[in-house]
């Protein structure tokens, strides 16, 4: 079925998140206690709440979005391009700009969004942060009351599972086995918070996020048995 989807109708995406505060001690006492309770199962006795706080970016209640990268195909005749752009800066502006893109350019019934593990992470995280920032959720993100076949989201992890819901394959592993150039540059997800808070190098994070977005599109092409994008077809805007 995915072979029948018009590539021009898909918005590919990836997000980068960090702990909402730079360190555990910046949280007020109540949030420190709530973090302790929230992470008890994951930490067990191996880490204190303070030691574990570097992972707070994976929870929308304790993290924030610092970059959303999106990509979309423009195919005219035999000319194929993949345009990539990123939203970064203050979180509320990131979410507003992303929302405007969806509402103005990807709001029709045929439009879909696609990421890797995006149904479990990226999409819910974005929606929760919009609520926390008291912003309206675009219809494409608001799944309340929608039947499974009405959800306008594709997920390359889900497509790769083929119904095997206990199975997880990372983006890096999937690109490797499918013969796709590795999306990873000089950092990985565990280093994003340090690059953001200590090195203050948002450009490295944007590059990392955009590479992941391109990798998702490449995986989707592979699943359709189509030619991968070459460098000349990728346009950063």
UniProtKB/TrEMBL annotation:
CDD domains for this protein: DNA_polB_like1_exo
Any one Gene Ontology molecular-function term assigned to this protein's record: exonuclease activity
Signal peptide stretch: none
Keyword 4Fe-4S: no
Domain Predicted 3'-5' exonuclease PolB-like: 62-224
Gene3D superfamilies: Ribonuclease H-like superfamily/Ribonuclease H
Lineage top rank: taxon: Bacteria
Record key words, sorted: Exonuclease, Hydrolase, Nuclease
Listed name of the protein: 3'-5' exonuclease
Organism: Flavobacterium ginsengiterrae
């Amino acid at each position: 079925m995915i072979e029948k989807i018009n590539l021009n109708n898909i918005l590919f995406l990836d997000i980068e998140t960090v702990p909402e505060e730079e360190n555990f001690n910046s949280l007020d006492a109540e949030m420190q206690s709530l973090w302790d309770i929230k992470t008890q199962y994951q930490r067990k006795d191996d880490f204190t709440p303070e030691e574990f706080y570097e992972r707070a970016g994976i929870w929308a209640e304790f993290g924030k979005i610092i970059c959303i990268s999106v990509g979309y195909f423009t195919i005219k005749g035999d000319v194929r391009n993949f345009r990539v752009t990123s939203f970064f800066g203050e979180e509320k502006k990131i979410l507003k700009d992303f929302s405007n893109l969806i509402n103005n350019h990807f709001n029709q019934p045929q439009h879909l969004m696609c990421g890797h593990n995006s149904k479990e992470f990226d999409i819910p995280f974005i929606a929760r942060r919009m609520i926390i920032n008291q912003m309206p959720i675009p219809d494409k993100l608001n799944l309340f009351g929608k039947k499974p076949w009405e959800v306008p989201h594709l997920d390359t992890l889900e497509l790769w599972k083929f119904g095997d819901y206990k199975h997880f394959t990372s983006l890096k592993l999937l690109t490797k086995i499918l013969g796709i150039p590795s999306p990873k540059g000089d950092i990985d997800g565990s280093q994003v918070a340090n690059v953001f808070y200590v090195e203050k190098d948002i450009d490295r994070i944007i590059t990392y996020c955009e590479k992941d977005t391109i990798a998702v599109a490449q995986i989707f092409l592979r699943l359709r048995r189509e030619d991968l994008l070459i460098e000349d077809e990728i346009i950063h805007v």
